[in-house]
Structure formats: C-alpha cells, structure tokens
Amino acid sequence: MAGQSPRGSLLASGTVIAALISGVTALVTALLPWLLPEKSPTTVEPAAIVATREAPSTAGAPNLAIGTWTIVSSVDDAGNDYAGSTLRFLTQHELGDRVEASGFFEWRLGQEAIGREQVVATYDPATRQLFIEGKYTDNPEVLAPGSFSAELSDDGRQLLNGRWGNVPGERVGILGTWEARR
C-alpha cells in the first residue's frame, strides 16, 4: 500500500468494517427465527377448539430427536453385523395423529464407517410403531436406502423388534433385523 493516502486507507478500512457488520447482521437475521421461542396465540377461535377435540392426540408422544440411538443388534440375512451404527433424528413435528421426524443413520460394519443414509420417519403413538424410510445414501456403491420398522419401548428409550427391507424403486439391499437404545 505504498503511496496510498491516509484518507484512502481509512476509507478502505471503513468499507471492510461495513461489509463485516452487514454480513453479521444478515447472519443474525437468518438465524434469529430459530433461536426465539414460538409465541403462543393469545386468543383461540371456537373452530380451533372443536378441531382440537376431534383430532387424534399425539400427547405423550416421545421426542425422538433427543439423544442418539445406538444400534445394539443389527444383522442382515447375509450375516453382516451393523452393531455400533447410530440413528439420529434432527427434526420432529406433529402431523395430526402421528409424529414425523427426519434424520440419518450413520452405518458401520465392524469398526469401519461405511456411509450415511438420510431418512424420514413416522411414529404412531396408538401402536407405538416407528416406520422409517431411507431417502438416499452418501455411499450408493455400498448402501441402498432401506425401509425400517420397530416398536418403541414403554420407557421411550429402546427401539425393539426392528426389521428392514427394501425401498421400491431403489437398488435391492439385504433384509435384516435391528434394535437400538438411547
């Protein structure tokens, strides 16, 4: 910056600072809705009360997104053991009489991480059944998206009697069984 006037240097510094402030402001504006708690309505319309009474309740449904589910037993029909893999739900929301969650399996075969499978799950509180459908994998040469089911234990800490199969329209995988704990 030899030969640059002090005023030019000051203007360049001011421009950089203004750009940084603008970037931080944009970032805070983008993240703020997720950081603030949702406001509850102050008034309730009578129609909303009727709809609430008629809709099946998901009250008492577990929060599937708390913690990480560790696969403790997971063997496919070829004898491969996927114990030590994990299931993590990142989001969860109520859809009438059921709960929907999304997240991923982090699959391991023995001590080796073999890939991640993005999933969407539906939980039915009436039957305690969890249904999970794989959407895609990051390692399609090794992993095929699967279709999974399991029963949530009474304490909400275990997925029991799990089975998995194939997703229609995807590469065929090997069927198996699984259980998980958190």
CATH topology of the domain at 69-181: Lipocalin
Order of helices and strands: HHEEEEEEEE
Reported for the largest beta sheet, the result is: 8 strands, antiparallel, barrel
CATH architecture of the domain at 69-181: Beta Barrel
Structural class by helix and strand composition: alpha+beta
Q: What is the tally of beta strands?
A: 8
Which residues sit in consecutive blocks of at least 5 with pLDDT less than 50? Answer: 39-57
Account of the protein in words:
Helix content is 21%, strand content 41%. With 182 residues, it is an alpha+beta fold. An eight-stranded antiparallel β-barrel has the order 1-2-3-4-5-6-7-8. The N and C termini lie far apart (59 Å). The model is unreliable at 39-57 (pLDDT under 50).
Q: Any chance you could write out the topology, listing elements then pairs?
A:
Elements: H1 6-35, H2 46-54, E1 69-76, E2 86-95, E3 98-109, E4 112-124, E5 129-137, E6 146-152, E7 158-166, E8 176-181
Antiparallel strand pairs: 1-2, 1-8, 2-3, 3-4, 4-5, 5-6, 6-7, 7-8
Descriptive labels:
single chain, 182 residues, alpha+beta, Lipocalin, eight-stranded antiparallel β-barrel, 2 helices, 8 strands, 41% strand
Give a quick summary of the entry:
The protein has two helices and eight strands; from the N terminus they run ααββββββββ. The chain is α+β, with helices and mostly antiparallel strands and 182 residues long.
